[in-house]
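hey so u asked for the seq, here:
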Amino acid sequence: MSADTAKKKTVKLTLPEEEIMSPGHLACQGCGAALALRYALKGLGRNTVMSIPACCWAVIDGPFPYSAAGVPIYHCAFETAASTASGITHALSRLNQKDITTLAWAGDGGTFDIGIQALSGAAERNDNLIYIVYDNEAYMNTGIQRSSSTPHGAWTTTTPVKYFKKGPKKNIMEIMVAHHIPYAATASVSYPEDFLKKLNKAKQIQGTRFFHLFAPCPTGWKHPPDIAVRVGRLATETNVFPIYEVENGVYKINRKPKNPKPVQEYLKLQGRFRHLDEKTVNVIQDDVNRNWDRLLKLEQAFGEPSA
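ran it, structure tokens below
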């Protein structure tokens, strides 16, 4: 046996080996949303029922009767991912089916914008479901239009270069935390171990659990498909997308870069930011710094008490 072979045999798997999602789906090359559901199902398992509104995944899953997800799916209207999931979870409760996870799976357009009223209602009722928004920061399925998750400075087809998106993206995490749900977390396809650890925790909690999942989109972000994971890592290493969780009001930052990289390292890999001048990049950097400082203060004020 060669040294390389022996080394391969000692590699420890950090994720479940079973693949529930099938290959042959209709995602674009390098799609972060496809990777997102692959990981989510590894964490939640086959006893999962999904609701999917109009979004990239409504297409990725495949044309009826084919389905790449590997679990039952209810395709629903754009604004109804959460209300459909609420109906599913209440029906399962009536049937005394306690071992099935209800998952609402939606993009940022169907969550930050069109579906926020149904999500807010489910959260206010504390319906027993997991809601995951895979965030690619625009309406990618319908042609890369701006959403309220689109960051400041970004090109989209409705915010072209001369009129790029102005203003920060909506802080969906703090909106959900304000509903006093038992669990809310950010996660990224670039950190799958963290994502699965949080999913395993969420499965043990009753009530509404919310995930804001970062999912790079090579097509809409204009970067090569093979660097999607790298782009996602840079989002966290620059503090553009912090990884943290809030359990029963208690904040915990899961990844704290010792020496955060400048935001320019993240922006320069993406064609959607290629038009930005130094002044605008500095504005984005200042906004990232301010949001990170605010999050640190929230953890200090509402984190686990020191031993």
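DSSP finds twelve helices and eight strands in the chain. The domain at 18-302 is CATH 3.40.50.970 (Rossmann fold).
lmk if thats what u needed
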